[in-house]
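User: Fold both of these, please.

Assistant: Here is the first one.
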Amino acid sequence: MDALKNAGNTVSDYANSASETIQGKGAEASKEANKNIAKSDEASLGDRASAGKDAVSDKIDQTSHEHCIPYLLSRGHQVLNVDLAPFPDPSTPIHTLKADLTDSGQTFNALSSHFHLSHYETPRQPNGSSGVQPPDAVIHFAAYARNLLVPDSECFRGNVLSTYHVIEAACKLGIRKVVLASSETVYGVCFAQGDCDYHSFPLEEDAYDCDPEDTYAMSKLCGERCARSFARRFPGTDIYVLRIGNVVEPDEYERDFPEYVRRPETRKRNAWSYIDARDLGQICDLCVRKDGLGFQVFNATDDTITTRVPTKEYLKSVCPNTPITREMGEWEAPLTNKKIRDVLGFKEEHNWRKYT
């Protein structure tokens, strides 16, 4: 988990939802469970909307982990990192609280914890309490990041149970903002057996019938349903789900994108779409700052398709039997981010064409 505050000490902790940490790149990398908890010392919710908020979040993989937290820190949040492993960059001013999010008690305690040892210097409150306030928001990216890291039953158990515990603890502690990591895989093609076509283009959050066949995507879809149920049970709580695309780290453009462009057929399982790890940090910040939307699902991708051929022309050539349900932008990513641009005001900063 990462914990974010508007000012003062910045502490970040990540808690893995399973017993080991898997590291790698892109969709193949995984940090089991981490969350960001952000707190504001004095500001009201209205003030924090413009100045920054506290959030609790966890990460999907090492890539998003390393870049999202620095971005959130740069935006004035204080961050508590909840993980089974310390943050990889020791120069980043965050604290790591080790916790297993598949354990309900550990999850509740992590979300009501001090951000740093220095917080013990805070005077005790007149009512005798320690003065620890719950974070303003939780960003939960905790998960096994793909199939075949562990047996399917453990992947499902770890992902679903940690997500349930995080949402339940947040709601019962009065935390009014929860941001969850879902996945591009829920659209049913990424981990399908053999070649499989999408139902339609573009892949839109509120119109597409998600029917994945694999365990990882199934666990993510269950997490989305948990989020919707808790949002109904706790009116006034915002729970935003991010269907995160293939996460790309800065050094991967030069290394990987020439091959992606040369052989675009290899990108079908990712819907010829991606999200820069730094842009994902911006999305997390926007989610923390935007209040009042209730339950929402957003595709978390950058703007454009990863081909040199315009979107409609390319899709008709490789998926001739898949309907295109609306007019698409010339280079619009098939895993479209139109909703997150329209609703949250996301503005891509790292288009792959700048680096390739």
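And the second sequence with its predicted structure:
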Amino acid sequence: MKLLLFSLTICLAATLIYSSNSLGASLNKYITILTAPTFSQSSSNRSSSNIFSLPFTPPSFFRPANMSTPRPIALSFLATSQSEGAGASVRRSIGTPKLRQLSPFLMLDHFTIHPGAGFPDHPHRGQETITYLLSGAVDHEDFAGNAGTIGAGDLQFMTAGRGIMHAEMPNQGFSDNVGMQLWVDLPAKLKKCEPRYRDLRAEEIPTIKVDGGKVTVKVISGQSHGTDSVQELAYTPVWIFDITIAPGGKIQQPLPTGWNAFAYTLQGETTFGEGDGKKTVQKYYNTVFEREGDYVRAEVSPEAGESAQFVLVAGLPLDQKVVQYGPFVLNSQEEVYQAMMDYQTHSNGFERAKDWESKIGKSMVH
């Protein structure tokens, strides 16, 4: 039903836009125009719009020689549960009134999908999605014939580019399917690239121990304590770490200068920051850091009754306007209008969407 309503909305919107300027203008209120939150960033830290040699790993001068300055906390807030897709439950933190976006990040969902629910056939244009599965298994299928399954600990990187239509559904062999999905903006010059997928399996991810074995770091993307991860997974430069800290453990994780960063706590209580800026957060809290500083510091009290686990993510800010209408993320309202028309008319990247239905989408309970 939600898919049908979405299709009808797109059809109506496209009709209104191209039949009447006044009616098209009335649709503007439904389109989100996003600008990067300022926090305390300075102009010297803003990324230049001419950085397009992606994918990209920061050279050594991006890494401070002596990690002398911790990143202060900008804000921390609870991700509340809401319904999404068709019967799925998500805790959304980025992409909400509390944090509309954190360039290059557009949305962060901590999702739970039970059998019979999921995310049936739907389109995308202009962004990348990174799906990190924590438990269970999720099937995916798109209109180009790509299909597969990711399991616990696996990641899937999907570039929508000029357009894709796909479905993401729980594998029927599991009762609980839990994970994270992050939407990452594409640089303007890459928004018309061809769509693509890359899977990263759990066994391909380097895992290291620090602080005498009290801290475990899965280096999904980026660099941590002398260990480099697999590269060339996403066009927009992003570092991702899955960090577990036992009681009494601590870590200082360097991050590229000027990148936006956040930590989403999955379990336990984590203390971030140093000195008067320390803050202890519980599970389901997203903690956003200032751009200034060389590293993020995290620790767990020796008196804690359990370990803490969080996902630390950092990304290169994009110096560009963001205009979003549902799954379409472009740089102007005109481009969003064109995306809706292209989807409805099966053109300019959506040709294969005509009459296409996924097989896995039919597994839903009606």
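Residues 2-19 form the longest helix (18 residues).
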